[in-house]
Design brief:
- The chain is α+β, with helices and mostly antiparallel strands and 446 residues long.
- It has a single domain, classed as Cytochrome p450 (Orthogonal Bundle).
- 50% of the residues lie in helices and 11% in strands.
- It has 17 helices and twelve strands.
- It is globular, with a radius of gyration of 22 Å.
- It binds protoporphyrin IX containing FE.
- Protoporphyrin IX containing FE binds next to helix 12 and helix 17.
């Protein structure tokens, strides 16, 4: 029986906590944990939400009660990411999700991933070459550079193509799309898409741009008689038990999901890692020593990557202190109870990865960037969840680790990144945790 009361965030009579949340969702979630605790209830106009900031609550909800904490896909009234991704792997649920996950899993298995290393290396070399042409001391926006790099990696490995000539359009369309998607969750009063408000028109235009790019990738492949062994071929060639191919809509949804989920997050990891290294010269020095000792200027292969223990710890710590996906969202499908707390059906649960990764009960000096903490064999299970947890854990986790370890080692061996602004960069959370306004840097060739 539910006996405990969930603290409620103070707010307006009419709009609840909408104003605070809209002003800065990232800061609101941090403040509410600090002021009210690890489980908090709040209201955004008509919508009831709960904020979870404790590892045990995460385990209870996302592992033990995953049937009650479900993705919020509703084909009649799509909200959040499903407005862009449709029913791709990230947003779909039930049997459709299970079938697609089983189908796509082999592409992401470790054994298959090493075959993608050459494309990742090419993308890394192209970046270094471009930087070299810019000249020593060139100034760039690190966030944009890493976005471009990760986009090239995902399109080359999964779809054997490049969309770099459209990078400007893609970045701006994704920015508009992701911000709009986040707004439909944070503000239930957002006018429905069929009303031609300026924001709705801008969103439709942005998804139109992305759709054109995705469909031209699919159509181009269909018109070639290629026997490539990438994700796109698998999606196009697969047949169900009755011999039917996957529908065009489903292929589009899976392609745009991998395209989006597969580059935005990894770009953030690399950006934050290089930023943190620039602010912590002692960590950078140790990293350079490992890279020098293990690689002597060479590009690591799969075996060499396994030996880069400190490099991995640096990335793990960067993903702790700046988790690329800041929150997970679920709909509560029926009235339920956890640890004596009652949760109402149809309300939303927000799991703050950021709050959990900074929880002082689980992390000593949580604000300190200290990769050493990942060199011990300490078990952290639900206190460290950059890739989520339970059955919906990230399918691209091994891919992302391989990619970021490789590219970080290539960049750090050739360049020092000097921050042009010494103030701490502000965090902006739409769906992912990004540096607000990017990170202007000067590139110094080593
Ligand atoms: C460091 C980089 C990455 C981070 C931090 C990250 C984080 C996450 C998180 C937290 C989830 C769980 C979402 C939820 O439970 O609602 C997730 C799911 C997912 N990620 Fe990633 N991701 C990364 C890279 C990638 C890459 C490289 C790909 C594809 C190549 C990818 C594809 C996906 C997909 C398809 C899902 C949905 C899985 C499912 O529900 O079955 N991610 N990711």
């Amino acid at each position: 029986m539910a006996t405990k009361t969930i603290p409620r965030v103070k707010g307006d009579f009419l709009l609840g906590n909408l104003r605070q949340y809209k002003a800065n969702p990232f800061q609101a979630l941090c403040n509410w944990q600090r002021d009210y605790g690890d489980l908090v209830s709040f209201r955004l106009a008509t919508r009831q939400l709960y904020l979870f900031s404790h590892p045990q609550l995460v385990e209870q909800a996302l592992v033990k009660q995953s049937h009650n904490f479900v993705k919020m896909y509703n084909p009649e009234k799509p909200k959040g990411l499903s407005l862009i991704l449709g029913q791709g792997l990230l947003t779909s649920q039930s049997d459709l999700w299970r079938r697609q996950r089983r189908l796509m899993q082999p592409v992401f298995q470790r054994a298959n991933l090493t075959s993608m290393l050459p494309q990742m290396v090419t993308a890394g070399n192209n970046l270094l070459h471009r930087w070299q042409q810019l000249g020593n001391g060139a100034q760039v926006n690190l966030a944009d550079e890493m976005m471009q790099l990760a986009l090239e990696v995902i399109t080359q490995t999964m779809f054997s193509t490049s969309v770099l000539d459209k990078i400007g359009e893609i970045a701006s369309a994704l920015d508009t799309g992701l911000k709009y998607a986040a707004k439909t969750i944070s503000n239930p009063l957002t006018p429905p898409l069929f009303i031609p408000t300026p924001a709705n028109r801008a969103f439709k235009q942005a998804t139109g741009v992305l759709d054109d790019i995705i469909y031209s990738m699919i159509n181009q492949r269909r018109s070639q008689s290629s026997n490539r062994r990438d994700l796109l071929s698998m999606l196009l060639n697969v047949r169900d038990d009755a011999g039917n191919p996957m529908s065009d809509q489903q292929i589009r949804d899976e392609v745009i999901t991998i395209f989006t989920a597969g580059h935005e997050t990894t770009a953030n990891v690399l950006t934050w890692t290089l930023y943190l290294l620039a602010r912590h010269p002692e960590v950078l020095a140790k990293l350079k020593t490992e890279l020098h000792d293990q690689l002597q200027g060479n590009i690591p292969d799969a075996k060499a990557l396994q030996q880069l223990v400190y490099t991995r710890a640096v990335l793990s710590e960067a993903m702790r202190i700046r988790p690329p996906a800041g929150i997970l969202i679920r709909k509560i499908s029926q009235d339920t109870e956890i640890d004596g707390y009652a949760f109402k059906a149809d309300s939303l649960a927000i799991f703050s990865i950021y709050n959990i990764h900074h929880h002082p009960d689980f992390w000593q000096q949580p604000e300190q960037f200290d990769p050493e903490r990942f060199l011990t064999a300490e078990k952290r299970k639900f206190a460290y969840i950059p890739f989520g947890t339970g059955e919906r854990v990230c399918i691209g986790n091994h891919f992302a680790l391989l990619e970021s370890q490789l590219l970080l080692s290539m960049i750090v061996q050739h360049y020092d990144v000097e921050l042009l602004n010494t103030d701490e960069v502000e965090i902006e959370m739409a769906v992912t945790v990004r540096p607000k306004g990017g990170i202007p840097v000067r590139l110094k060739r080593r």
